[in-house]
Amino acid sequence: MCLINWYYKKVEGVRGLTVETRKPIPVKEAIRKVMKFAEIGSNEEVLLPDSYGRYLAEDLIASHDVPPFHKSPYDGFAIRAIDSKEASQLNEIEFKVIDEIGAGFVTTKKVGPFEAVRIMTGAQMPYECDAVVMLELTKEYERDGKKYMSIKRSFRSGDNVSFQGEDTKKGTPLVEKGTRINPGVQALLATFGYEKVRVSKKPLIGIFATGTELLEVNEPLVPGKIRNSNAYMVQGQVIRSGATFRYFGKLNDQLDECFEAIKNALDEVDILITTGGVSVGDYDYLPAIYERLGANVLFNKIGMRPGSVTTVAELNGKLLFGLSGNPSACYVGYELFVRPVVKTMLRSYTPYLQSVDAILEEDFPKPNPFTRFVRGAATFKEGHLVVKTSGLDKSNVVTSLSGANVLIVLPGGTRGFTKGDKVTILLLEEEQGTNTLWAEK
Amino acid sequence: MCLINWYYKKVEGVRGLTVETRKPIPVKEAIRKVMKFAEIGSNEEVLLPDSYGRYLAEDLIASHDVPPFHKSPYDGFAIRAIDSKEASQLNEIEFKVIDEIGAGFVTTKKVGPFEAVRIMTGAQMPYECDAVVMLELTKEYERDGKKYMSIKRSFRSGDNVSFQGEDTKKGTPLVEKGTRINPGVQALLATFGYEKVRVSKKPLIGIFATGTELLEVNEPLVPGKIRNSNAYMVQGQVIRSGATFRYFGKLNDQLDECFEAIKNALDEVDILITTGGVSVGDYDYLPAIYERLGANVLFNKIGMRPGSVTTVAELNGKLLFGLSGNPSACYVGYELFVRPVVKTMLRSYTPYLQSVDAILEEDFPKPNPFTRFVRGAATFKEGHLVVKTSGLDKSNVVTSLSGANVLIVLPGGTRGFTKGDKVTILLLEEEQGTNTLWAEK
């Protein structure tokens, strides 16, 4: 049985009588409904060199003092400060140099009165010494085959010594789990001996495209058809958000086959995304599949543009995102709804897109009956962020997405904006995120 | 022969007579000297799904119109607008529905006067039609087994039609080579049939650590030794900048062996980084190796803190970066000197760290005889960037690096800064970059 006819007939039967009317919910409420099902994912271990950009699955706590021993921050001589007490321009004090230690070595000698150890930057202080004299403040010489140095000023206990634990005391919490690992965190992990790092596993997101008009990227153009761009765009969004993907290709138009494909895919992935097929159009059959799966549809209409038909369903705690087939709507849908779920699975405490104020650099005269998310390009200007739309604001316009680094939020019920107005923008390329939804600030 | 003794003796011999004095050059000049050797790297092809985050090696030009045909943006009926001319509330006009086309299909029928085709969103317009009537403005019915619809208003030619090329005309340059591929660019690549994408090859950066005090990450702590954190930190920086790395481990203290190791590594990589071993300390032997290689040392002292001993040499056009062994200096050295070279190899036209103004949120009383780069954490506050130092400003403090997302630039010759002062910050996590060095703005 052909799905298209099947579903077409179903709709035909009701049109004019009880035409399916969907009730839009506010975008803030839609995000909240989705986030109720966002749960922390599982963990895995990776080698330290592979940990960049991953999310820490456990708190990083200093397992020893840093530095782990008193050490010399300079090239010079380690002495007992007390021996230098009488040193002055007029009273040169001589020290016998009894050893020489490089970084990584420890002296085996006991340092007595008026004895010194030649010490290199980073080397451990001899036990008896409590000050370092920098090389350039000493005079070195030999006498009877023995080495000496002398100084003309006094030093206090602690002078030029990096004390054990002065950077970090053992037990200090350093980096909270859920933090994205940057080069500085990698340095800390190395310092504390993490050859392997426990990180959040990347959520696996399944992607299906729907649309009888779609060609795959390797197929030549034919009349009436266009290439599938959404699936590849979403793949990039998945990676940008810290997850990984499996692309299942295009759903065909047989309901039974689609149902089986989606059902099987659900077993293999953490999140399932479909692009297209969620409108009330005659050929849009995702609603029928959600019904047959017994999935709980959280919403199927949102008071926003683009992406009003974005549909999210849940089955046994697993989320199915029915993103619009329209590229801009699909893009916005991913960033608003899927991204914070991914970040939560990764243990991030700041799952939402960072929202900041920016100055609009051009007029946007269209009224906004619903909250509008416009693709924008933001730049810095004298310490402020300024923003322009990144191309035509038509929801089918793919080109505007390539230059977008923010979404401009134009609240519903506003009449249009003019150059110089302050607007809220959501930063798409910023990794830090925030724990507060722009709408709840 | 033991290198340490060899080099130690060499230095011993001259100390007090012609102690090696290095002449610091301004940091801006140092960057300029390095960038003279920054050349565009080679290319490779990757599959579209693997292209996220890579850099386009060729301009992306629209290979066809977008949309590639006139299409309907709505579900409805395609008509000849002229037939609707007399339609009004009092004059309902009837159309015979002769076909039904979904997205991806084309009608084979010729549409005559007062005929219509049921058309779905995204479907190609029938050749004779020039307007679309939205479904909700029609009345549908059957008569004698034939389908009809009627309308009560007129439409003009072009109403509700997305015209071929209205988004993008064939031949339009869309994305410049050297652009980092984001999800929007991936959508464009898919639209134009790029199953494979020509991208800049990631530069391969070799990394050696030096330092007799260093343990590898998997070795237990022993007295006098610390774990090597720089190599792992730099690995993260390499990846963040868009390159890839090979870690060659720790150089030992045998000059001949070190020389061979570095010489062989140079043949395998595009850029070579060493951490440590560049000071004038007795155990620092990189200068001897540069000499033996016959490398051209561009500079070995910079008027900056931290990282004044950062040394860069060049051999047959290949750059050898001698970064400081001190973690913060090493970190700053990578971002200021290596990163823009990597970005240039990737074809980026904006190789430098984005520099913007920010308001200092705390006092920084230390005077700055030389330009200082302080690790900072910047956040947004009412559309402005505000910045704090991200920890102790001691160059050996690893913990301050993990929270850093910017470098605060405090120009040389300044007396210290107070809360509320405007400072320049360099954004470490921003991917866009700039073509203008902060110092030349």
UniProtKB/TrEMBL annotation, chains A, B:
Keyword terms of this UniProt record: Magnesium, Metal-binding, Molybdenum, Molybdenum cofactor biosynthesis, Transferase
Gene3D superfamilies assigned to the protein according to its UniProt record, in alphabetical order: MoaB/Mog-like domain, MoeA, C-terminal, domain IV, Molybdopterin biosynthesis moea protein, domain 2, Molybdopterin biosynthesis moea protein, domain 3
Cofactor: Mg(2+)
The keyword Transferase appears for this protein: yes
Listed GO MF terms: metal ion binding; molybdopterin molybdotransferase activity
GO biological process: Mo-molybdopterin cofactor biosynthetic process
Catalyzed reaction equations: adenylyl-molybdopterin + molybdate = Mo-molybdopterin + AMP + H(+)
MoaB/Mog domain segment(s): 206-344
EC number: 2.10.1.1
Record carries keyword Repeat: no
Pathway membership, UniProt: Cofactor biosynthesis; molybdopterin biosynthesis
GO cellular component: cytosol
Taxonomy, superkingdom: Bacteria
Top-rank EC class of the record's enzyme: transferase
Role according to the record: Catalyzes the insertion of molybdate into adenylated molybdopterin with the concomitant release of AMP.
Family listed: Belongs to the MoeA family.
Protein name: Molybdopterin molybdenumtransferase
